[in-house]
Design a protein that fits this description.
Keywords: Coiled coil, Conjugation. This protein is an alpha+beta fold and 740 residues long. 40% of the residues lie in helices and 20% in strands.
């Protein structure tokens, strides 16, 4: 994947030229976003006139903005959703309407997206790529897009996209759509443009790709460049060296040296035949390869010459060419079918003109029908060319390439592959031995720190995980104790047992004095050992199976992990935690499920009818079921907090049990002083901005302890008695008023 060594605030052609002689000129990634706001002194009309190179009157200010002499504007296009009225395609009317709809002095008038277009693309392909990106990401969501293409015939092609911020309908602009300001859209739009541009580059026959991620996120050891700016670019173009230009030249040379070094070291340590085959089959050995990585590479090595040929760059490019040709043929076929359907409808609606249009003297009778017929003929010719190209690659190019590869493979390929496999096995064994040595060294170091055997028999060495005063087992006498942990395990020292041991300075143990840290290097005195709850995953899996069998229509798309852990461990905050040997354990591994499936609460989206949350009774006070996060349904495991103020929810993903959010009982009604019924909970999930409300299932049948553990301030029976008493009091007051 190739990205730019410059971080551009705007695409700059001069900066491209400065890269010549250091790296090959290639496609770069640039996409920036900003808000055009009135508080910053901007005008939507002036901005649109400048980007489109046109003359427009700002009706709000009375100013005329004339940019018809601006050079570099290739084309400007307005794309509207289906709900927009016809006048929205008029640029002046559109942006004057935007100005009229915004009444505040700090109004946000429009959103602008500026993106760099790969200069390798032909102008038509570049234009269609940008418009497809705009339609997919903005127009489909209800925005109006004003797209201006600049410098399409030079080395700096780019596009400016101005987007409206209000919903539009037949009556004009409505309210602001706040969802369009969600920051998560930025990453989605940036990734979408990279995907559109890479597909266009592949269709144009280029193997290079652009990437919206930074070098650090890509895992590349590259240093990003600095932005030159217009002045520095102009000076560098005239041959005047600048400080920023010199810094970028140094950065480019550094990146090139890193790339060369990584290429040389990629297959370092291999013999010549093995390196030859690795380069031929595009097999790279990562610098941080583990024994597991090498094992995967060994298992993926080809078994014969045919599978080996498919790994070569020549084969992969031809396969990609065939796939791109096939996709384009299918697109044209779809367009051709639509044109044929349209022509058939025209012929059916006006059969006489359609029939007479075949006669030369009557061709004027059906111009639209003739236009569709010409479009069908053009599409058919394009499809035939694609079919011939596809067959040529399939029947001629690929067999010829395979035959040439077979001859080369017979000479040195098989022997080189055997040498490569032997070298990889040798390196795998070395890495495995090194990993084992590191593990043993770490274990030995840990034992050395917490080992009773390396010191005198009368000296204690352990990690102090807690201390306090409690009744001593056996006689019940109140005495001091220490909670300790070392290689021998966990144990407690009571009362006079402490006198048998000496500290590091060979004095008798005194609890009140030595809790400052004399007993151990890693003393944690003063902190009680954490409390952890352990649940059986097998029991939870059994409960989940019952849920799926009972409600198959809602759990059809449930995403379960490929491998289940042996158990679930929760910390004192009831969130997933790593098992700690020093922690106190509350074991629920042997807990049993209720004899019948007892649904506790659920939530279903009214519009999509998708299940958002479903929890049923599990082991002890736990609940199990499913929860929807980011549109995906995951297994859910819920446990009340220690003070029963929250219901903590965790989701089981491929990476294990992960904290998903919490729920609280709705005990107060903002519109009434009367407490509502204990039947509604409000959940705050990590992937949702708005709270999710879930109703308790048949609350009159739920046990009393469930309402307490969920955080309700009364049970259903208590609320029912209060409601009956309130109703009875109201009836008595009504009767008394009637009698008067």
């Amino acid at each position: 994947t190739i990205s730019t060594p410059f971080r551009l605030c705007a695409p700059c052609g001069a900066e491209r030229k400065l890269q010549k002689g250091i790296t090959a000129e290639m496609a770069i990634y640039h996409l920036s976003m900003k808000i055009i706001s009135r508080s910053s002194g901007y005008s939507a009309v002036a901005s649109a006139a400048y980007r489109s190179g046109s003359l427009m009157l700002d009706e709000r200010t009375g100013l005329t903005h004339d940019y018809t002499r601006k050079s570099g504007v290739a084309e400007a296009v307005i794309l509207t959703p289906a709900t927009a009225p016809a006048w929205c395609t008029n640029r002046a009317e559109l942006w004057n309407a935007v100005e009229k709809a915004e009444r505040r002095k700090n109004s946000q008038l429009a959103r602008e997206i500026e993106l760099a277009i790969p200069h390798e693309l032909p102008q038509d392909a570049a234009r269609e790529t940008v418009l497809a990106f705009v339609r997919e990401n903005f127009v489909s969501q209800g925005m109006i897009a004003d797209v201006a293409f600049h410098h399409m015939d030079k080395t700096n092609p780019h596009a400016h996209i101005m987007l409206t911020t209000r919903a539009v309908g037949p009556a004009g602009f409505g309210g602001k759509v706040r969802d369009w300001n969600d920051r998560t859209h930025a990453e989605t739009w940036r990734a979408s443009w990279a995907d559109h541009a890479n597909r266009a580059l592949a269709n144009a026959g280029y193997q290079e790709e652009i990437d919206h991620r930074s070098y650090e996120r890509q895992g590349l050891e590259k240093t990003p460049g600095i932005h030159l700016g217009k002045s520095a670019c102009a000076m560098e173009t005239r041959g005047i060296e600048t400080e920023r230009g010199e810094q970028n030249r140094l950065i480019n040379r550094l990146n090139l040296e890193i790339q060369i070094s990584r290429t040389e070291l990629r297959n370092g340590g291999l013999t010549e035949p093995a390196r030859r085959v690795a380069d031929l089959l595009n097999i790279g050995l990562p610098d941080n390869a583990t024994s597991y990585t090498l094992r995967d590479i060994i298992e993926a090595l080809p078994k014969d010459s045919n599978s080996a040929w498919k790994l070569t760059s020549n084969a992969m490019s031809m396969m990609a060419d065939m796939q791109a040709t096939r996709r384009r043929w299918e697109e044209l076929n779809t367009e051709r079918k639509e044109a044929m359907s349209h022509a058939a409808s025209l012929k059916k609606s006006s059969p006489f003109s359609s029939g007479f249009s075949r006669i030369p003297l009557m061709q004027w009778a059906a111009p639209e029908y003739r236009s569709e017929q010409g479009k069908i003929q053009s599409l058919s010719q394009q499809m035939e060319k694609l079919r011939q190209h596809y067959r040529k690659v399939e029947k001629q190019d690929i067999p010829a390439s395979q035959m040439a590869f077979e001859k080369q493979w017979q000479q040195w390929g098989e022997s080189g592959l055997a040498a490569l496999r032997a070298q990889l096995l040798k390196r795998e064994e070395e890495l495995r031995r090194k990993e084992q040595e590191d593990t043993e060294r770490s274990r030995a170091e840990q034992l050395r720190k917490n080992d009773n055997a390396v010191m005198d028999s009368g000296v204690l060495r352990a990690v102090v995980t807690g201390y306090g005063e409690a009744p001593m087992p056996g006689n019940g006498e109140m005495t001091c104790y220490l909670l300790l942990h070392n290689r021998n395990g966990e144990y407690t020292l009571w009362g006079n047992e402490l006198e048998k041991y000496r500290t590091r300075i060979f004095e008798r143990v005194d609890l009140m004095r030595d809790r400052s840290g004399y007993i151990c290097d890693r003393s944690e005195i003063g902190q009680h050992p954490p409390l952890q709850r352990v649940y059986s995953s097998a029991t939870f899996e059994q409960l989940l199976t019952q849920v799926c069998q009972t409600w198959p229509q809602y759990t059809r798309n449930l995403r379960q992990p490929k491998t289940w852990p042996e158990s679930f461990c929760l910390g004192e905050d009831r969130q997933p935690a790593m098992p700690s040997p020093a922690a106190r354990k509350v074991d629920f591994m042997q807990g049993r499920l209720p004899p019948t499936l007892m649904p506790v609460m659920s939530s279903v989206d009214r519009e999509t009818r998708q299940l958002q949350l479903l929890l049923v009774m599990g082991v002890d006070d736990s609940l199990g079921g499913v929860v929807r996060l980011n549109g995906t349904l995951y297994p859910a495991f819920a446990v009340p907090s220690a003070d029963n103020s929250q219901l903590v929810i965790s989701a089981l993903t491929d990476k294990g049990l992960r904290y998903a959010g919490y729920g609280v009982a709705v005990n107060h009604d903002a519109d009434s002083h009367i407490s509502p019924a204990p039947e509604l909970m409000e959940f705050h999930l990590k992937t949702r901005e708005a709270p999710l409300f879930a109703a308790v299932n048949t609350p009159e049948k739920q046990p009393d302890h469930l309402f307490r553990s969920l955080g309700f301030n009364r049970t259903w029976e208590e609320w029912q008695r209060e409601e009956d008493a309130r109703t009875h009091t109201t009836e008595r007051r009504h009767d008394r008023g009637w009698s008067q």
